[in-house]
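Retro notes, item 3 of 5
We never archived the inputs for the nicotinamide-adenine-dinucleotide complex last cycle. Fixing that now. Sequence and ligand:
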Amino acid sequence: MDIKCVGVIGAGTMGSGIAQVMATAGFNTILIDRDDIQVAVGLSRIKHGLEKAVQKGKLSAEEMERVRGLIEGKTDLGSVADCDLIVEAVPEDLKIKTQIFHYVAAICVPETIIASNTSSISITAMAAATTHPEQFIGMHFMNPAPVMSLVEVIRGLKTSEETFQKVWNFAKRLGKTPVASEDRPGFIVNRIIMPMINEAFFALMEGVASAEDIDTAITLGTNEPMGPLALADLIGLDTVLYILEVLHREMGEDKYRPCPLLRKYVEAGWLGKKVGHGVYDY
Ligand SMILES: NC(=O)c1ccc[n+]([C@@H]2O[C@H](COP(=O)([O-])OP(=O)(O)OC[C@H]3O[C@@H](n4cnc5c(N)ncnc54)[C@H](O)[C@@H]3O)[C@@H](O)[C@H]2O)c1
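Structure as it came back at the time:
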């Protein structure tokens, strides 16, 4: 079965970006959220994203309208019944995700592939909530999905080779670069980047250098586009802490122990760019 129609569940930061990527690549896309307001917010985020692409000359005004026409916003989860691929992007909560997978697995044809955009939950555990775990997979887009070219494709314990190949090829048709990861905490990117961010917080806490100098050192010293503390602010310090806690708990290794300073910032509500204050002021 070829992938023609895609369902994206959750029209938040990631879901709206993923829907934009799908439609830009020419796929009919159904974007689901739980109420009309959330759907409207998601669709307007996509409109804004496409307008930016037009301004940058990456898309013509006609193409933008064609892409918008390929996306249908819905609140009824049953609307994805005929989709060939479903990408779930609801909040990072196993209970919410599992409820969705139960429902979707019951209404879709057996061939439908179900993918999760989770950052830290076990693909194998979520697959167990479906009737066809061999057709369940992780498809981890980076934020912002329309801009970032990487997609981590994650095999659960029972994911079939056929499902893996289909999703791998589909990611390429989206114009993305897929990488294959086994189902281990943090997959590839977060497993490597989170300890670096954590170490930057330890260095800041110990007074090794100022936040600005830590970021400048890493930016210029390793040719990164952004320092680890600025990156943490962008991701959200609560999200960083959550992923570190998952790594620490699941791997059982002290090297993932979240820095107390990071914990304090989160307790203080300094969650980063999204609230106007984190390591830096915005
Ligand atoms: N934000 C990131 O940087 C990032 C990057 C990669 C992966 N992820 C992962 O992507 C997923 C989504 O993250 P996000 O940042 O887009 O979250 P978000 O909070 O921006 O969006 C989640 C959306 O899901 C909707 N939703 C909640 N319950 C629902 C339900 N039952 N049915 C339909 N919609 C429902 C919410 O209304 C909201 O619009 C998470 O698993 C997260 O770990 C996030």
